[in-house]
Design a protein that fits this description.
single chain; mainly alpha; Four Helix Bundle (Hemerythrin (Met), subunit A)
């Protein structure tokens, strides 16, 4: 296995995160030009007057900047200590896939039960990644 393969899942998640970021100004601009919100509704983030379909991309973007930070750190750590293997790579791709699915659920039909289940599974995968890292460095 080539060492750079370990960084591919993190790179894909970063590009996906930037793609979701593009949705934030698009949704806000559409709502602003349609007169559904005022510019001041975004002065301190998002006011209560901002419709959910405008808030959700921003919330999803924030989700992609929270817990995935531990994934990025884990990816770099596994790469730097050269303890990567097919299991780490599979777990990393599983995590990325689950986070993409979570976002797609959140950004489309947004059923909380489905979204929560995928989120919980992704967190379990991330926990396994970190347990394997701890076992590798201790």
């Amino acid at each position: 296995m080539e060492s750079l393969q370990m960084l591919q899942p993190a790179s894909v998640l970063a590009i996906f995160t930037l793609t979701v970021l593009l949705l934030v100004p698009i949704k806000r601009a559409r709502a602003l030009f349609a007169g559904r919100v005022a510019e001041n509704d975004f002065k301190y983030g998002e006011s209560d007057r901002v419709p959910p379909e405008v808030c959700i991309p921003n919330r999803n973007y924030m989700n992609l900047l929270e817990l995935p930070v531990l994934f990025y750190v884990a990816s770099l750590l596994v790469f730097s200590i050269q303890k990567y293997d097919a299991i780490f790579l599979s777990l990393a791709w599983a995590y990325v896939g689950l986070r993409v699915i979570h976002s797609l659920i959140h950004l489309t039909y947004n059923r909380v039960l489905h979204r929560g289940l995928v989120f919980a599974i992704s967190n379990g995968v991330l926990a396994v990644i970190w347990i394997r890292i701890m076992l590798a460095i201790w």
